[in-house]
Amino acid sequence: MQVFLKVADTEQFTRAAQQLNLSPSRVTRYVDDLESRLGVKLLQRSARRSVLTDVGAQYARGCRTLLSSLAKVEASATRASTAIAGELRVAMVSGLAQQGFAALFAEYRASYPDVSLFVTSTETQIDLVSSRFDVGILSDEMIKSTTHVSRTLIRSRLVPVAAPSYLASVVTPLRPDHLGAHRVVGLAAWGRNKRWSFTGDEEYCVRVNEAFVASSRMMQKQLAIIGAGIALLPECLIEGELRRGDLVHLLKAYRVSSDDMNILLVYPSRDFLPGQVRAFVELASEYAARCRGDTVAVSEPDALTP
Asked: Contact, 260 vs 156, CB < 8 A?
């Protein structure tokens, strides 16, 4: 279409070819193919000039209208990729809002007031694409997407904790092998008869008595707070409760040797991110780095996870 219009404007195949940086034979072939496909003569050709037929003039007007509309659509799409506006849908693991991440959303909203921010708390596995979320702040076991880009925001160790009300009625465990005599609040994802492993003055692998099994970490935390038993919880989810004394960190001389919990910043693709998504990814990474402490690590470079 663009080649045809250039010939119509210049009235010469040779001049059109020069301006388009194409060979005259290729320009001729493009116009011939267009006329063959339409089944009409668009140009009357002579040795010196090529002028539009009546049908050609009508077709040229339609082409200009169509290309003008396409240019507007492309310009709008380009602005959308750079403008920081519109909607941003974020899925976040429950409990992080209370641990300071609410401030991240407030900072983002203050910096980009043209973005409508929708935050959904969840503890279930989630596929960002099928669930139509732009970004996730999720624990590693919650990510269901087959492909995604992820960046580690938090690495949080697991720590054994209990409420003062529970500890008031029992003998506080001083070594990991004392845990066998205590009620434990387990997590359904671990399965029954879970063994807890510790390192310290020696290696311990203790079979615990799961008096309660919670379906989520937030339920596990609440059961621990009301004194149901000892729970193994990510430190990043209980920082406030430890500070206030609602929960007590047990066995501080020992470290749980099972896997830490990672909180990841997740988004479907690193290519062609909308402006509001790109801005959130950058701010969330900076925020985690500013707030990092014993449980927070510097965000890693983007990684595509198959």
From this structure: yes
